Amino acid sequence: MNTMSIVGGAPDLMQVREQVHEHLLARIEELGAEFGRWSRQAIQDFVGIEVASFVRLQRIAINEMEIRELVQRLTQELAGLGPLEDLLNDPDVEDILVNGYASIFVSRGGMLAKEASQFTDNHHVLRIVRRILAPLGRRLDESVPMVDARLPDGGRLNVVIHPLAVDGPMVSIRKFRKDPLKPDDLLQLGAFDEAIYHLLDSAVAARCNILISGGTSSGKTSLLNALAFFIPKTERVVTVEDTAELALNHPHVVRLEARQAGYDGGGEITIRDLIRNSLRMRPDRVVVGEVRGAEVIDMLQAMNTGHEGSMATIHANSPRECLYRMEMLAGFAGFQGSEDSLRRQIASALDFIIQIGRLPNGKRRVLSITEVTGMGDGVIAMQELYKHESYLDAEGQEVDRWPSLGIHPHTRKLSTYRDQLNATARGQESTESKDNSSFWDWRR
């Protein structure tokens, strides 16, 4: 009987795994259709028995811990998602990026790092990806070399293969938390401070129209999910998305998802179609996952026609660029009015723009809160209420702060909130005045 060659006194575990995998495939072929009816636990027991037998017969010098690892990896390969399985189950992983079979990058805490695990070859990548896509009914081959799909747990999968991807299959998986972050969670994580917390709470409760602006992976969806906690439980919310990602913690949510065109080019249902239909569904608020095309016109009309308190996200690097992008998208959509009338519609629809970003250290922070106040000289007027700053404390630690720029919200919707701010300011002034009076009394 041949024994496995030992390099440096120990066998190559990758080589062992490949040989055991080939042995298992041969055994599965013998079992035929029976194997397809087995549960995952039955498959794991089968793999354990076969691995132990193979190691003993081939006289491979590996210990019990290495055998258990082999069983786990091979079970994942036969019944699960191979190298992706542990990453998908890791709650700290935010993004999984596969750049060909030998390169897997993972984002944790907003920072990308290369993983030690990898696939065997590009066919291995495709086999695992097709296993993910099979229950979703999505096709991936040379005739359809690009696919975008929603995973059962709410995550998002994007795959590009040959001939579009030159260096092998490119897989991007965006994971979402099973328990969406609450506003209190974001406050504890340092995404904003208590003053911004109270402003956001008041703005959502008072049915202000809010647009969350930011770059890729800046936390726009997480913030939008968090804002839903401030929506009164008596309201009906309709969400519209290209790929359903939102998980609003609210008792009355209607989720709508766009549909891509079929193989014959027909059957497409766009976000714009869904927004138009949502207005016939008696919504109190319409929440658009991301504005990226012609739907910007319908979203503005919804905000301007009795659906106050609506919210959406958009890709932009600043509040001013956010407005420019909306104008550009409306122009691409064939907006028939003048530039001035479009700007007036935007100014009357929006109340606040929340700019969020991911800092170089990976932390996600609200960068500014800006109020849209109207039109002036053909330009949309805005005022910034809070702006993010960071500084180093005495111990050299970076500290975040959001100083108020001394301006109170202008909108009539927040008159009560404005009165509370004024009352608090008067109380502070009164306290300071008493302190000063006591000081001068003591001096006398």
UniProtKB/TrEMBL annotation:
Domain of life: Bacteria
Biased composition regions of type Basic and acidic residues, renumbered to the chain: 429-444
Region (Disordered): 423-444
InterPro entries noted in UniProt: P-loop_NTPase, T2SS/T4SS_dom, T4SS_GSP_E_ATPase
Family statement: Belongs to the GSP E family.
Species name: Alcaligenes endophyticus
Annotated Bacterial type II secretion system protein E domain residues: 78-356
Protein name: CpaF family protein
